[in-house]
Amino acid sequence: MNPGQGSWDVGATAWLLASTALVLVMTPGVAFFYGGMVRQKNVLGMITQSFATIGVVSLMWAAIGFSFAFGSGRLLGGFGFAGLAGTDAYLPGGHLPGLPQLGVPVLAFAAFQMMIAIVTPVLVTGATAERWRFEAYIVFVALWTVLVYAPITHWVFSPEGWAHRLGVLDFAGGTVVHANAGAAALAMVWVLGRRRGWPREQHRPHNLPLVMIGAALLWFGWFGLNGGSALAANGVAATAVVNTQLGASAALLAWMGIERTRFGKGTTLGAASGAITGLVAVTPAAGYVTPLGAIAIGLLAGTVCQLAVGLKSWFDLDDSLDVVAVHLGGGVVGSLAVGLFATRSVNPAGADGLFYGGGYRLLGAQLVTVCAVVAYSLVLTALLGSLTNRLLGNRVHPREEAVGLDLSQHGESAYEIAPARTRACAPMPVPNATATRTRRR
Prior knowledge:
Layout: H1 10-37, H2 43-70, H3 106-124, H4 134-157, H5 162-166, H6 174-192, H7 208-228, H8 235-263, H9 268-282, H10 291-308, H11 311-314, H12 323-341, H13 361-391, H14 398-403, H15 405-410, H16 417-425, H17 433-440
Helix pairs in contact: 1-2, 1-3, 1-7, 2-3, 2-4, 3-6, 4-6, 4-13, 6-12, 6-13, 7-8, 7-9, 8-9, 8-10, 9-10, 9-12, 10-12, 12-13
């Protein structure tokens, strides 16, 4: 038995392990959410990218990602946790350098953070849908996890990171996950270029029920992301769970309301997009704001991000599934809103925002961190995308793009329609004359 095991909070450990499983569910949720939004010939390509990311990021996180994210250092963690070495250690009454104060096994914390690391690059695939070669994507994800995601995680989540020392508050990943992924998506849209035929040709979702299933899985898993980030089964975790629900609900209604005002109808896709936007925006604030604050953040994010969707046409950027508007926009709105709505009455470990007498200090820290994260992710992602393009070629061949990722990249088809048509169009068998006469008698 580990000497420190007796000091572990059993309830907190159980809650964190359950939350870890919930966060993992978010990746299949993204797979189905994006898979339903693309054309029929690309659905398996999107799903496979998501599932392959689970394997790649898990191994990279265990090998070096966790060490870079939570090792000791101001700009980047060292190699102390490489291969997850030392994660079986626990110091009663203290903490390991680079790690927050833990009442749970370090390995449980590493597993929880691994699931967050997995879902972050998966978000990027929505912006680059229907045109990214599978091999190039795999290499990109491996490099991006270590060189982009891990350093940003260290800045914000590690007690030794410069942004953490500055006083930034990011409860579950508004900057680390969403602003980061949104900026990376913007960079890769620029690197990969537009889909053939866009915007002249319409690229409509092929399966809206699949989209809604994905959105439901994401919503379900998000309770683990935000609630588990409390690292304990306590009042802060309960507040985070309630705020998650309220922020998503408010943004869903705001998005559909703006849709109805602008276009005359609120759509199913709009409901799903609005809910995801609210979940994104409330993520950095979930454990720092009151329920009314979460509702305000959801309404603001649902309105701003719905209007931001149209900007991609102005800038001629083919963000296939509106990742930049939802995740970069929602992440920035939510992170800055922490500087307005945060209050120590919810979480004494936080700070008071502008609306609660805290002045501009917290808002300034949020703004500086958001700008630094977006700039770093944008530049490094563009460089990594250019590198993989030189090494492997990012874009599928025009003929492969026309056929679709399912067949060209994986040799599979999501829907076997041809055999069904063949059966439907087959001639009816001629009845046996003797049997017919027998039945008539």
